[in-house]
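> Could you send the ThiJ/PfpI domain-containing protein prediction when you get a chance?

Sure thing. Input:
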Amino acid sequence: MRDTVYFLAFDGYADCDAALALCEIRRPGSYRVQTVGLDRRPVLSLGGLRVLPDLAPQDIDPARAALLILPGGTAWERGLDGGAVAAARRLHAAGACVAGIGGGTLPLARAGLLDTRWHTSSRPGYLQGFAPDYAGTTLYDPGLLAVEDDRVISASGAGNVEFARAVIRALALYDEVDTAYWYQLYKLGVLPPWLAAGAATPLTEAA
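Output:
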């Protein structure tokens, strides 16, 4: 039963990257979220949140894994691994979805998961610069903020809303109509019909 979303937490991980995705995963209550640390010691996020990981990479249960989220953080550029690359490869091979955003696309590249799949990342040349064995340049699309192909989600660090939408679709959290309403609300500030009917004025950007 694939009922668990695993989230990799390490010192300096970009908590902003997957915040929307995590909230939507937990909202329906169909999935549990567990944090994975490189060890069991507390970690401090980029935003200053202290997290005590639930388990280490080797303790992930592939049979229960619906999704592995790899958030961004400059630690990836400094060669962070700690079992993350092997975990991404192992979980995808077992049938789970794996998702990286910003620097979190580097372990996907190092695992070889972007070599044969349509993907994106933070900027052209980023994956080649920090993942020397990466061989997917012809499938890299700089025009997308997030994309999913064959259970691999990749996203730019500027695409946290698009990343969350890809996660919503991968886990079938909402149908396509509600997913479209969700995206319009969080990306464009457009209220869904059931909320707009009671709103006196549309949402506008603060001055």
